[in-house]
Amino acid sequence: MLNSSTDNAPSRAGTDLTVRVVDGHGPIVLLRVVAALACLETLVQGLLAGMLLNGDVDSIDPHGINAYVFELLVCCQVVAAVLLWRRNRRLTWPLKATTGILLATFTQTALGLQSSLAAHVALGVGLCAMETALVLRAFGLRAERPAV
C-alpha cells in the first residue's frame, strides 16, 4: 500500500504497518541491509547458543565473537537511523528502535559475561524478535520519487 496523500509530502511515522514514503534512498537501503544482516546474526547466535546448551563447549568462542559482530551491526543500524532521521525529522521510530536495540544488546552482552543464563537466553529471544520487527518496518519504507 503506497502513500495516498495528494501532495506527495512524506508521511508521518505512525504505529500502523503501511508503507511510508520518505526522503533519502541511500539511508533507507543502508538501514534495510544492516538490519537484515543483524537479524541473521541473531539467528546464528541462537544456533550457537543452542549448540552450547546441548553440550558443545567449543561453540562458546564463536558465540562470543559473533556477539561482538552483532554489536557492531547494531551500532551501524543506529548510524543508518540517524542518517534517515536527519533527512526526515518526523520519522523518529527507526532511531528510537535502533537505540533500544543497542541498549538491549549491551545488556545482553553484560548478562552473558556474568553467566546469567536465564536472563541471557530470554533477552536473546527478545532481540531476535526486535530485529525481525525492525526489518519488517524498514522494508515498509519507500524513497520519495524525485520530481521530474
Features:
148 residues, 2 strands, mainly alpha, elongated, 4 helices, two-stranded parallel sheet
Short description:
The protein is mostly helical and 148 residues long.
Question: Could you explain how this protein is built, in words?
Answer:
The chain has 148 residues and is mainly α. The protein has helices spanning 25-53, 60-87, 93-113, 117-138; strands spanning 20-22, 141-143.
From the N-terminal CA to the C-terminal CA, the straight-line distance is 23 Å
Report the major sheet: 2 strands, parallel
Helix content: 55-70%
Low-pLDDT sequence parts: 1-17
- How do the SSEs run, as a string of H and E? EHHHHE
Shape: elongated
The percent range for strand residues is: under 5%
What is the alpha-carbon Rg in Å? Answer: 17 Å
Mean pLDDT: 86
Q: Topology of this structure?
A:
Elements: E1 20-22, H1 25-53, H2 60-87, H3 93-113, H4 117-138, E2 141-143
Parallel strand pairs: 1-2
Helix pairs in contact: 1-2, 1-4, 2-3, 3-4
